Amino acid sequence: MGLFSRKHEPTPEERQRLEEAKSDPIHMRIRGIHKTYGDHHVLKGVGFDILRKQTNVVIGPSGSGKSVLMRQLIRLEKPDEGEILVDGTDFAKLDGMDLERVRRRMGMVFQASALFDSMSVFDNVAFPLVEHSTLSRKEIRERVMDRLEGLAIGHAAKKWPAELSGGMQRRVAVARATVLETDILIYDEPTTGLDPVTVRTVDELILETEEKLGVTSIVISHDMASVFRIADRITFLNFGEVVASAAPAQLLAELDPKTMDYVEASGVSEDILAARRK
């Protein structure tokens, strides 16, 4: 779902700058992020890059700070220190309408899809446009149906969320998250609680969405098999610090023994690891 609260459009200057930024392979640069709650120092100078139009996965054990990091990346919270550069603009320091303009470019797919049970699929996807755009009803209908059909769920427009499978619900959630023409899509533990067949369906959806819509994907996950199937870049977060951030093959070659023990203990098959080492 869109992460902003007012109807507005990017300025002409911002549109020009965004066009110029598209040639930069790095979409976001996270530098020296700290976050403390009372005496609990959760993020301790976190820094890594998010690659444009690729699948960027953040992994790590429970309590490593993944959820806290996600809240900083979408600015649900403000970091205590550090920079979150989105195409050169420091998202961490923005407020008001400047903050909203950058937020408009981000979509969020929540862990359990978070669809509105009392709304049809069509109305779920239309909701961000109704709330946060000035489009006419006809334009909203065209935009929603275009997005649903692009994700192969146009036939489900009149259905209720409860009538859909877990994989179909994730497709609706992706449609809703991208209907505002977002270019950064964040997935919060997208395969949690799903059966193996649906997990693979969601993995394919992430890659399909990235290819069809040209979005940059950020996936917060602990599902190691899924991670090594879809990731172009993996960032390993451990106790609030980045211990590795690289392509899968490089990551597997350079992980220290303790971190590698975590990967192997996760149950990911040797076939998957062997494939990603190449």
Structural notes for this entry:
This protein is α/β, with parallel strands linked by helices and 278 residues long. It contains eleven helices and ten strands. The protein has a six-stranded mixed beta sheet, sandwiched between helices. Strands 2-1-4-5 form a four-stranded antiparallel beta sheet, with helices on one face. The longest helix is centred in the last third of the chain and has 18 residues, at 196-213. Residues 1-7 have low confidence and may be disordered.
Please name the defining characteristics of this protein:
globular, 4-stranded antiparallel beta sheet, disordered N terminus, 278 residues, 41% helix, alpha/beta
Lay out the secondary structure.
Blueprint: H1 12-21, E1 26-37, E2 40-51, E3 55-59, H2 66-73, E4 81-86, E5 89-90, H3 96-103, E6 106-109, H4 121-132, H5 137-150, H6 166-178, E7 184-188, H7 196-213, E8 216-220, H8 224-230, E9 233-238, E10 241-246, H9 248-254, H10 257-265, H11 270-277
Parallel strand pairs: 3-8, 3-9, 6-7, 7-8
Antiparallel strand pairs: 1-2, 1-4, 4-5, 9-10
Helix pairs in contact: 4-5, 4-6, 6-7
